[in-house]
Amino acid sequence: MVVLCGTDRPPGLEPVERAADVRYVPADRLAAELPGADVLFVWDFTSRAVPAAWPAADAAPGWVHIASAGVDTLAFDALRDGDTVLTNSRGVFDAAIAEYVLGLVLAFAKDLPGTLDAQRHHDWRHRETETIAGRPALVVGTGPIGRAIARLLSAAGLRVSGVGRTARRDDPDFGEVHAAGELRRVLPDTDFVVLAAPLTAQTTGMIDAAALAAMRPGARLINVGRSPLVRTDDLVAALRSGSIAGAALDVFDAEPLPADSPLWTLPGLLVSPHMSGDFAGSLTTLAQLFVANFDRWRQGRPLHNVVDKHLGYVPGGAAGPATAGHPVDEVPVAGTGQEGLPAWTRT
């Protein structure tokens, strides 16, 4: 087994090391180590090294697992069209990202950036803030992360709807889900637009100049999905012109964000360093998820979180066809010592 990592190795892989020849390699050694390996664990999920290092079909690994929910760094033809099974870390980040989104919504509504700025300048500046109860929110992406966001925003009093591949009513988390083709039509009806969709050919650039022009002048955009969902230049223009009230970005075209990027100083923009899903203990949880799936692989049992390589995500409301009956967004029982770990990894 090959683990693609940088200077930091995943914690807690001792059970795997006892059962397999585990080789921890940086990106520049991947091409030499990968041919003939049975398993590739992409711990450094931001790395772009895998496509260039991918071996011939007869030497390709049978299983690739990535320590992220998104698999766009692995969207290349040789993997997509081959027999390799691809799994992801769906289910780990749902609650943390939902909490982060709620925090951003409250930060906008209560002008917390303004309060902090006034404090820094010793400026006693009383002002009124917005309420969020009853305000419309649109979550683009109806997978587990989007559903966790919808549930938490609904609990806080917002009126939430969703955008997904197909339209439907009476959804348990969104109420109404609009088809992706209806996005621009429903944008004028919402105050908070939250992007939590996977990056696919269909979602790339979905928030462009036309979509931003369709939004309310007082609306805010929050992107915790993938940066290419938004046309950055169009967003810069919209914020500079004031056509929307604000935005929060947790993902960027270039990471770390360059020091000379105009995004740092744009009015109404909150910048965070791709951290919305990262919580204390998340690295251990990611490694435990892989260890649990590794045990299934050794036993010849179906793997959890199997990605449809042509869709670019795990289909279905649970964790894909191989995991029916094991929803990964099930809330773990507090006090078990495995809080935050998807429920199926404890079975």
UniProtKB/TrEMBL annotation:
GO molecular-function term, one example from the UniProt record: NAD binding
PANTHER family, A to Z: 2-HACID_DH_C DOMAIN-CONTAINING PROTEIN, D-ISOMER SPECIFIC 2-HYDROXYACID DEHYDROGENASE NAD-BINDING DOMAIN-CONTAINING PROTEIN
Sequence intervals crossing the membrane: none
Alphabetical keyword list: NAD, Oxidoreductase
This protein's record includes keyword Secreted: no
Region (Disordered): 321-347
Name of the molecule in the record: 2-hydroxyacid dehydrogenase
Any Pfam family: 2-Hacid_dh_C
Domain D-isomer specific 2-hydroxyacid dehydrogenase NAD-binding span(s) in chain numbering: 102-276
